[in-house]
Amino acid sequence: MSIEKINLCDETFNHILAIIAAQGYEPGSKIPSESELVISIGVSRNTVRTALNRLNALGILDIRHGEGYFLKDINVDVFSNLQLPILLEAHSDLETLTEFRLGVEPQGAALAAVRVIPEDLDGMAQILALSAGSLEDEERFARSDMDFHLAIAKASRNSIIHRSVEMLKALYTVWLRGFVRVHGNAASNDFHHRIFRSIRDGDAGAARLAMTEHLTDVLGKVRLDAAGGPGMPASVLLAGSGEGASPAGGRTR
Fold it and tell me: How far apart are CA 145 and CA 178, in angstroms?
């Protein structure tokens, strides 16, 4: 299939999503037929059918043979199915992924501060203890690092934030091993304790700020290295994940 054809299928897919959103279809509603979409969008029937089949595979549409295409109840799983290909496409772009984290995780930390329960705090404390005892074990620290971020996302009680960080964990954990080797992990450990204290104290503003400063610092380091500045070479960037230098010259993820 040519690049032009792939792009046309993507555009048709997005166009049909826009039609569904603009018309305000309710779950169970029938959407326009293939023939109507061909005329409306101005593409071939095969292109429309490819886009519709993709929407069906993602759990957005239900195909009823002989009847047409019907909108399903769009839930968090559908959102995740749409989001995962985007994250996978950007898997080697640390700047893009870190920008996404910066947009999502501070809000998750703020929500966690007001929604956290004792069980959540116990889990976070256990992860922090494991991290502190794994400062010399790169792989173990990498796993516990993202486990901590995932625990915060879970405590936010926001299913989309939780699922987003869950997917990011799978992408970041491998990279973190390389980052820990190059940048260390002491300041990352400090940042995590600061975030934890804010959540434990129920201070949403402080939790948001601590997470924002943590990931802003990561983003600055990622951009510096990507630009060829002092620090980690690009080849290591693709093998690590967000450990960067702290403003005070320490190390953080």
Answer: 13
Q: How far apart are the first and last CA of the chain?
A: 41
Domain boundaries, the chain: 3-71, 78-252
pTM above 0.70, yes or no: no
Q: What is the pLDDT along the chain (253 residues), one digit of tens a residue?
A: 443 445 788 788 878 887 877 777 778 889 999 999 999 999 999 999 998 988 887 777 888 988 999 988 765 555 555 555 555 554 556 788 888 899 999 999 999 999 999 999 999 999 999 888 877 776 777 778 889 999 999 999 988 888 888 878 877 766 767 666 666 677 788 899 999 999 999 999 999 999 999 999 878 877 876 776 544 433 333 333 333 333 333 333 4
Q: Which long-range contacts (C-beta less than 8 Å, at least 24 apart) are formed by 122-131?
A: 123/151, 124/148, 124/151, 124/152, 124/155, 124/196, 124/199, 125/196, 127/151, 128/189, 128/192, 128/193, 128/196, 131/185, 131/189, 131/192
Third-level CATH fold of 3-71: Arc Repressor Mutant, subunit A (1.10.10)
Nearest to 168 by CA among 109, 89, 111, 97: 97
CA–CA separation, 223 vs 230, rounded Å? 11
User: Would you say domain 78-252 falls under CATH 1.20.120.530?
Assistant: yes
